[in-house]
Amino acid sequence: MIITKTPFRMSFFGGGTDMESFFREYGGAVLSTTFDKYCYVNVRHLPPFFSYATELSYAKTERVNSLEEIEHPAIRNAMKMLDMHHIRLTYEADLPARSGLGTSSSFAVGMLNAFYALKGQYASKEKLAKEAIYLERVLCAEAGGWQDQIAAAFGGFNRIDFSADGYEVRPVLLSPERKRRLNGRLMMFFTGFTRFSAEIQQLNNSRNGADKLARLQEMLALVDEAEAILTDEQADLNEFGRLLDHTWKLKRGTGAAVSTDCIDALYARGIAAGALGGKLLGAGGGGFLVFYVQPERQDSVRWAMRDLMHIPFEFENGGTRVIHYSPETYEPKN
Fold this sequence. Notes:
globular; about 40% helix; 9-stranded mixed beta sheet; alpha+beta; 4-stranded antiparallel beta sheet
């Protein structure tokens, strides 16, 4: 039996520039972190006593006798890709799917990590990120960028640069105290709305033109500004919050499905209560709002957002990992 634990990610700056169609021509960069909310994938070989060959438990339960019967596209394609058969897979998570935290990619990374472990093989973070991108973007043909899979595999507070040559992960070098202060000034709230990221991306991709390109290029430039604020111990950390407000306003103009009237109203409520800035996490349309709030204004913001669930969190550095490993003797069924 194998159990993997894979974190979710929070993207601050550069989202959208991690789309392959953009970064191969213009370059891209994302500033993001993983945090202490996880998904867990439990995999073992199915004992040979059942009338079905594979059992999958996620939001629904599937019991099938062939890979072609599997409805979940990521599981079906991953099992084909790694030649997996006769397994029982269970998925659990600390936060809901389709909520802007890269949950589907965290699942993909954690599942691949578990499959390799079940085969008795080690897979590096680079390998898991690369294969999760291939799984979701090529085999499953889901629209989206590359940042989620990379963040889930590597973990930590990173700058991820994208180019025609691929990507590079660089940890953001800020002192433990400054990192703690930043963490303490971020507040996350669940809007209650969930959506499929790939569908939102497809809707947003329908909006093209010079205005969208200019916005994405400015959002890319903000990655440098935000990183400089974090790494300069003399810089005013509150400027990070103000930049979040700026990048959110830019992002709202990059696609018709990024925001809604309800989300706009929630965001305005948080700003009016004292937040310096914030953004909706993920591709848009719902999920989690994160605000940058000075300590003396946090009670006010918490009260203003009282009809939403507040989710305290801490940054994490581990990325995907195997937390339980019990080797099995597996003999294929005839």
